[in-house]
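Why does residue order matter? Because the sequence determines the fold. Keep that principle in mind as you read this record.
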Amino acid sequence: MTRPSSSAASALTAVAREIVACERCPRLREYCAAVARERRRAFAHQAYWGQPVPGFGDPRAGLLVVGLAPAAHGGNRTGRVFTGDSSGDWLYEALHRFGFANQPQSVARDDGLALAGAYVTAAARCAPPGNRPTGDELSACRPYLEREIVLLRDVRVVIALGRIAWEAWLKASGWWVRLASHKRPPFAHGAEAKLPDGVHLICSYHPSRQNTNTGRLTRAMWHAVFARGREVAGR
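Structure:
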């Protein structure tokens, strides 16, 4: 595969700047700003990010992880996707375990975390009320994911965390319309499909507390997904 040029890395940085400045969805912007003003008691001493949250990782990633959206007191507080909440604890522990991250935790933008061979992004870039962005909000945000997919030219495997992320990636990559509905890869935990361009799509339940605290998603199930991602992405 062709390796990304420095111009591609610069283009990802430009996309990140556009995401941070985005005002496309008034409901989400109002909600994120309100959360940032009010804050949770445990974080009352912190200044919340309160803006849309860009993707994070290695421009030469072989693995792309797609989540749902920033958490109100996670990414919306810290300014980094999957950072400062329990879902992020699960994600970065797995990325570290399988050699994609230099440390197992992500707590702040300046904590020294670096990803090697992986990039983390989301279907929506603003924390939505109740963790439920509307269809129109997901559509408004999709061009950012489309541009990341184009720029991340070395991606060999995509891990979609939850059904919304699965659908968002299929739509942003173009496969939703290029494949007949009965030929689209199904969503199920651990389901894997190889797309016509050679990219492997692996599905996982989202590591939300609703799934991890109930046992719907166990560590063994979670680690199996990322072990397979490591195998496909290569060393």
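Strands lie at 56-57, 63-67, 118-122, 157-161, 192-194, 200-204.
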